[in-house]
Amino acid sequence: MYNKLVTRRDFVKAAAVTTAAFSTFNILGAQAVAGIHTSKIKVALIGCGGRGKGALKNFLEAAKLLGVEVEVVAVADAFQDQIEGAITQFSLDPSVGHSGFTAYQAVAQSDAEVVLMATPPNFRPVHFDACVQAGKHCFIEKPVAVDPVGARKVIATGELAAKKGLTVVAGTQRRHQQNYQEMAAKIQAGAIGEIVGGSVSWNMGTLWTYPRKPGMSHADFLARNWLNFTEMSGDHIVEQHVHQLDVVNWMMGRMPRTFVGMGGCARRGVAGGNQFDFFSLDMDYGDGIHILSQCRQIDGCYNRVGESFRGTEGYTNGVKVTGKEVSIAPVQVDHTSGTVQEHVDLLRSIRGEGEPLNRSREVADATMCAIAGRIAAYTGKLIRWVDLTENTDSPYYGLELSPKALDFETGDIAMPSLEPAIPGEATDWKLRS
Ligand SMILES: NC(=O)c1ccc[n+]([C@@H]2O[C@H](COP(=O)([O-])OP(=O)(O)OC[C@H]3O[C@@H](n4cnc5c(N)ncnc54)[C@H](O)[C@@H]3O)[C@@H](O)[C@H]2O)c1
Predict the structure, then answer these.
(1) Are residues 100 and 59 in the same domain?
(2) Considering the domain boundaries, does residue 1 fall inside one?
(3) Which residue has its alpha carbon closest to ligand 1 atom 17?
(4) To pair with 361 at 20 to 30 A between CA atoms, which of 126, 154, 183, 248?
């Protein structure tokens, strides 16, 4: 059943991974489970940009907190200058660098035990699959796909990872923050009663663009300027707003049934790319319950990043819960930053403390919600969750944006259309596939 959120416990059961198998394992001991030799943990990075280097820094800090020695055995990026940035920042031997669109394969073939992935999102399904096939524990940055085919591939790969006893942690860091975990626990304990509505937003200013340089191939330009192309990023409703949609799924405990959205392009026409600059989305959960979402990337406007929920007996604003007094188990974290804590949790899961973590389904579901919202806004149609997840007759089910990740490996690619979608006229699958 796609519509049911899969809990960590369900995942473990489904994968028949026994807790006993993990509990015998200690990261500081000499045991090896799922390929981990724990006196020193070997890590690799795919995508040496801002977040990739940030994730590696966070991983090193987390390992230090737990007293684990780390060896960086491979760093991969499409571009040599990005690799050199990582080599300089982390004082690595240049021989660990691999460049090009197939460089992820060198990481999969390396002796890394954990791989951190932070390329543009369109590459994630292919890279994640290669790493899990090779038996690596994975950290996958959000979002994890740009189309329904990619999101479902990540779910399948996540299930394979569970079968192999591999840990998967995603870059949805709110799941690892004490304040969000406490809010979730209070809501689950009934502090605000039943959630009957909510509003979430990521409204902020303009992000960066990478100007095209003379002689640049389409592939290189798109991989550099990925943030402005739907085919690469999923659009900012997917790339950025996925964080809020993940929080909604977490607090609601179920997926929306339908999506109605709108949006438009107010400034990217000038800056380049083919994305919208703003979206508004109505997600219908049934029983008269709607969650409204907004996201915008335009300078000089009112900004808000956060979530609020209205319940039958209270409400939340940000992570502040106003309602009934409830008792929850203490939430303990090792670090105040979710982006460090997620790596602490990854390492703890690898060494068998508590339940093994596999966040692939949660992040793929949140990504799929964001994709549904984008399709609703681009087409102007009502989009049903099942059209992306179960209904193989739906034109949206098989939507795969083009150029695809593998096209980058096999040669030059065609530039996608520079025209943003026109609701009511263009349909996402015709415009982009
Ligand atoms: N969790 C968070 O809060 C957070 C914050 C920022 C970014 N992110 C996510 O991290 C990912 C990367 O974002 P960023 O800000 O670091 O972008 P970035 O442009 O700084 O880095 C991306 C890197 O990937 C490289 N790259 C592109 N295609 C590649 C390929 N096929 N193989 C290998 N390398 C490739 C680029 O050269 C670049 O170095 C995105 O998915 C983004 O949404 C998450």
Answers:
(1) yes
(2) no
(3) 49
(4) 183
